[in-house]
What does this fold into?
Amino acid sequence: QVQLVESGGGLVQAGGSLRLSCAASDQTFSRYVLGWFRQAPGKEREFVSAISRAGGLTDYADSVKGRFTISRDNAANTVYLQMNNLKPEDTAVYYCGKERRITSKWPLRFESEYDYWGQGTQVTVSS
It folds into this structure.
């Protein structure tokens, strides 16, 4: 069973940066689209970003476009989310997920299209 472990969260002031990492235990990591989602208190989990299997395609929610960058290192079984110019509204628990079933669909923005969520990492942005 695939295990995903997120790290890199923390407390940062508005305008600051953080880099999240998500390490997978699965050696088939490179076969799957990977995504980042976030969940703020009292809100549903929402899509943040996704990256294609080889990393050539990326997709972002409008709220983070131009500030966040997703990347992956298939040799290291790790996906990253570089977050710049953070805003208080970015405060949430951030989760990474693996594509539930290999498909030709792109992009994948729905939570139901992913599985094997990690435990999440807390990002708090103070104003």
The radius of gyration is 13 Å.
